[in-house]
Amino acid sequence: VNQFKRYSSRRLTSSAKVQLAEEYFSAGEYKKILDLLLGTVALLFRSEHWWQLLERVGELCLVCAYIEKSYPFFVMILIESLSHYSSTPGETKRKLQESLETFLKYRPPNPPDKTPP
After folding, report:
1. What is the distance between the alpha carbons of residues 49 and 93, in angstroms, rounded to a whole number?
2. What residues contact residue 57 under an 8 Å CB cut-off, 6+ apart?
3. Residue 94 pLDDT more than 80?
4. CA quadruple 113, 34, 29, 72: dihedral sign
């Protein structure tokens, strides 16, 4: 533990936080995942231009935001998933866009397709 504290970097800490979020997902603690990942982890991945890692975190957060009915986060993650940085396949982007349009018409959004680990 002392060695981790002494030599830890933001990247190493973020990696540990993503693993912790996956454990929270298994335990069903979705609010904790949103607090943990949408704060420092997502900001670091954006600033370092790690789009694939950010996409993986976004998929996990999208499911959690849907389950928790945290609509501001849900919309934010949907918009980010539709950006040109995302390598999401076209069909999936179309479904995400339809979900966003449905939500903006004051109807319940479509549930996300993927269920993260």
Report:
1. 20
2. 18, 21, 37, 41, 42, 45
3. yes
4. negative
pTM of the model: 0.85
The torsion of the CA quartet 81, 72, 19, 17, rounded to 10 degrees, works out to 110
What tokens does 67 get? Answer: 């389950």
- Phi–psi pair at 37, nearest 5 degrees: -85, -35
CB 92 within 8 Å of CB 114: no
Report in angstroms the alpha-carbon separations of 63 from 1, 8, 13, 45.
32, 29, 23, 19
Q: How confident is the model at residue 4 (pLDDT cuts 50, 70, 90)?
A: low
**Tens digits of per-residue pLDDT, 99-113?**
999 999 989 888 887
Q: Three-state SS for 78? A: helix
- Check: CB of residue 14 under 8 Å from CB of residue 40: yes
